[in-house]
Write a structure and sequence with these properties.
The complex is a heterodimer of chains A (313) and B (282). Chain A is α/β, with parallel strands linked by helices and 313 residues long. Chain A contains 12 helices and 14 strands. Chain A has a 7-stranded mixed β-sheet, sandwiched between helices. Chain B is an alpha/beta fold. In chain B, strands 1-2-3-5-4 form a 5-stranded parallel β-sheet, with helices on both faces. Chain B starts with 5 loop residues before the first helix and ends with a helix. The chains are: A alpha/beta (313), B alpha/beta (282). Chains A and B meet through helix 3 and helix 5 of A and helix 4 and helix 5 of B.
């Protein structure tokens, strides 16, 4: 049985590592230290941990002040509150002056599950992608979450948004995976269709590719975990070599990965066809993660069915 | 720079007002009222209280001043120019295309600005972050944050206020520029603003009140705040919006307005007269 992990937990565990290596790292939390396991950092470095309480905007602005004074702050909350509730603070106080603040939005997407539309963030990637200077990262598994969390302090000097989930997923990347900002990774080669996915949907894409192989449809899978700056070269390669590109994201098809890929393809004027899978301009609702993925066509079989239709198979 | 002589500080405050009026000029909309009401406070901070080396505005141990009511940044530009951090000749480029002197603080463009504001209500949280960073890094600098009295209608101010007192940020001083007017009218026309002092005390702050145009009292209040190590300090400064330009004083229509050429001349004339009186008095 493959071990399943939630990326939000991998984030909290990686913070502890980052804290050990970098004395400038500080962590801000808004009453969720158990949900993201920032409690590990709190217990190891209490003097560098600030729980501001239920005050996300205050947290984000405080993080900006810390970054302006030489610290490397990580601030986390549920993805929708962090990005939507604090958009103005992030925009003016962090993105505009290009401050090195790492924003981690947890429980993102439909797989947040039972709490419903108020808590299911289907717009966070769009909101963050719009901001100048902001890097937008969507890790697919615990390996990539750890790599990105450390790299955000070590390799990047400026604002970073990392999107985290609470859906148990298997690790699809090897332990020696090396994250590089702005670089997509080909996880499976194929010639007839390219599934370009991020986050939890990478595993869905890999499963769908297996089902499509049974129908003799040669399917490539690309992990596009940096949404901004997006790997233009990888998209150009895919559309130059594969006639059908399909993006899969647990996010609105407006403004997220699908939009980023569409923008590159449209400006390039290529002939490849694009299908965007995600939520289609609707809010979420209460349900289990699996029920919601099913409803929005984001399961391996639903993806395989949708792609197979294009081939009449 | 530390100026101890109160008369010299009063003179510097008039000079600062002259710089503000000159950089704003005639026929362009500017936030005259708030910069003028804050002028004495900003002067006392930069020329009396703050540990600040104009030759090295990035000095990690400098005291920090954040203009939370970002539209009043011209008063800060003026102080920085008087200190030599910015060239005085650059001031009239305020809000012009291509200028780093943006209408609201762009900290990444201008040495001496500590953070970006402009969307009201966010500066006190930012100041908390700087004060917390001092503690984490074992530095002994102080942080000063100027807030508008209308600005405290923003809920985030009170979120921040609770963080400051919870963390016992004795290295933080906030000053409310209580000029009694926001863009349209008095803050109390929209929300219940009193009892202001009791509220800050109830939020765990040490509070004092001061006449925000009485230089000796401002300095005394800043000394009091500096010595208060146990809790964040709040100075409620009673001020007059537009102070120093008699015909705009207390008039909300000059919150963000243009002066005519004649009005500009009149404003500068009055201030320059004050400067001359100082000279003669010597």
């Amino acid at each position: 049985m493959t071990e399943l992990t939630e990326t939000r937990y991998a984030y909290g565990e990686a913070l502890l590592e980052a804290g050990k290596v970098y004395p400038e790292v500080a962590v801000l939390d808004a009453d969720l230290y158990s949900s993201t396991r920032t409690i590990l950092f709190r217990d190891a470095f209490p003097e560098r941990f600030i729980d501001v309480g239920i005050a996300e905007a205050d947290m984000v602005s405080t993080a900006a002040g810390m970054a302006a004074s030489g610290l490397i702050p990580y601030a986390n909350s549920f993805a929708i509150f962090l990005t939507a509730h604090c958009y103005d603070q992030i925009r003016i106080q962090i993105a505009y002056p290009d401050l090195h603040v790492i924003l981690a939005g947890s429980s993102a997407g439909l797989t947040q599950g039972p709490d419903g539309a108020s808590h299911q963030s289907l717009e966070d990637v769009a909101l963050m992608r719009e901001l100048p200077h902001m890097r937008v990262l969507v890790p697919t598994d615990s390996v990539e979450t750890r790599a990105m969390t450390i790299a955000a302090a070590r390799d990047i000097d400026g604002p970073v948004y990392i999107r985290l989930g609470r859906y148990p997923v298997p690790d699809v990347l090897d332990d020696d995976y090396n994250f590089e900002l702005g670089r997509g990774t080909i996880l499976r080669q194929g010639e007839e269709v390219a599934l370009v996915a991020c986050g939890h949907m990478v595993n869905v894409a890999l499963e769908a590719a297996r089902l499509l192989a049974n129908r003799h449809i040669s399917t490539a899978v690309i992990n596009m975990s940096t949404i901004k700056p997006v790997d233009k070269g990888m998209i150009e390669w895919a559309m130059g070599n594969i006639p059908l590109v399909v993006t899969i994201e647990e996010h609105s098809i407006i403004g997220g990965l699908g939009s980023a890929v569409a923008e590159v393809m449209a400006e390039d004027g290529c002939g490849a066809r694009l299908i965007r899978l995600g939520t289609r301009d609707v809010f979420g609702e209460s349900g289990t993660a699996d029920e919601l993925l099913e409803k929005h066509g984001l399961t391996p079989s639903a993806v395989a069915k949708r792609v197979g239709k294009e081939f009449g198979r | 720079m530390v100026v101890r002589d109160v008369d010299a500080l009063r003179r510097l405050a008039v000079e600062l007002r002259v710089h503000v009026v000159r950089m704003m000029g005639a026929n362009k909309k500017h936030h005259f009222g708030g910069s003028m009401s804050a002028a004495d406070i900003v002067t006392a901070l930069y020329f009396y209280r703050m540990r600040y080396d104009p030759e090295d505005p990035e000095w990690p141990d400098r005291d920090r001043f954040i203009m939370s009511k970002g539209h009043c940044v011209p008063a800060q530009y003026a102080a920085l120019a008087m200190l030599g951090v910015l060239p005085v000749e650059e001031l009239p480029q305020l809000k012009e295309m291509g200028s780093r002197l943006q209408g609201h603080p762009a900290a990444h463009l201008v040495p001496g600005l500590e953070g970006c504001t402009g969307s009201l209500g966010q500066g006190l949280s930012f100041a908390n972050g700087m004060a917390l960073a001092a503690r984490i890094q074992g530095r002994d600098y102080d942080v000063y944050c100027l807030i508008g009295d209308g600005e405290i209608q923003e809920g985030q101010i009170w979120e921040a206020a609770m963080t400051s007192s919870k963390r016992c940020l004795g290295n933080l001083t906030a000053i409310i520029d209580r000029n009694g007017l926001k863009a349209m009218d008095a803050p109390s026309c929209a929300k219940a603003m009193d009892p202001l002092i009791d509220r800050w005390m109830a939020f765990g702050w040490s509070v004092c009140e001061v006449d925000g145009h009485e230089m000796a009292d401002i300095c005394e209040a800043l000394d009091w705040a500096e010595e208060n190590e146990k809790a964040p300090s709040m100075i409620v400064a009673h001020t007059v919006k537009g102070k120093g330009i008699p015909f705009i004083e207390g008039r909300p229509e000059f919150h963000n307005a243009a002066l005519t050429e004649e009005q500009l001349e009149e404003a500068l004339g009055g201030l320059e007269e004050q400067l001359e009186e100082w000279e003669e008095g010597k």
